[in-house]
Amino acid sequence: MQVRMNANVIWIEGARTGNPSFVPALRKKGLHIEVVPSGSAALELIKETNPHFVIINAASFRSSGIRVCRTIRISADNLPIIVIENPDHPFTDNTIPNVILSLPFTSRKLVNRIKPFVPAEGKDVLVAGPIKLDLERKHVACEDREAQLNPRLTSLLKTLMEHAGEVVLRETLFHHVWRTEYYGDTRTLDVHISWLRSAIEENPRKPKYLKTIRGVGYRLDIE
Length: 223
Description:
This protein is of the alpha/beta class and 223 residues long. The chain has 2 domains: 8-117, 3-Layer(aba) Sandwich (Rossmann fold), CATH 3.40.50.2300; 125-220, Arc Repressor Mutant, subunit A, CATH 1.10.10.10. The strands form 3 sheets. It has a 5-stranded parallel β-sheet with strand order 2-1-3-4-5, sandwiched between helices. Strands 6-7-8-9 form a 4-stranded antiparallel β-sheet, covered by helices on one side. Strands 10-12-11 form a 3-stranded antiparallel β-sheet. 32% of the residues lie in helices and 23% in strands.
């Protein structure tokens, strides 16, 4: 499985752009990208999502984008900002953004300039086949899917991954994940399994990896 760049990104892009968007390529690398049309929209999202960095596609505006950049810098002083400029409208103040890229350039170059702002992967990572669970960050990646998990889902997936290929009894999962000897509320476990399938399966209704062993428990099948 390729190394993925797990980070939350706000991408500001105006309606007018004659250049190919880099967003799909960056999403394939693992970046969580929210696209907004303006600086004001970005500011609202920054408050809600606490992104790792912002990319301003100034080449999609009629101007250099310097006003948008200044607005974000004033409101979020420590937030890294990457600006994509159109050579016809150069960005005149290179003291505001962290990086300025002038078109044309490749997606690989953009990725290389982004890397310093991507948070380091947690030190405690569990891998089983295509499934990669970052225990420290509570983040799972499987093929082209990824998701943020809560502590209980992380513990549940960890237990299943540690016993990949084996049937794990319902009682065992309740004991390890819920720290209880009471096994009457099986619906709770079923719901959590459903959430895990939504995170790692291409088709949660027809799971490829997380199988139900009816009346017994669950098994994580890794080829």
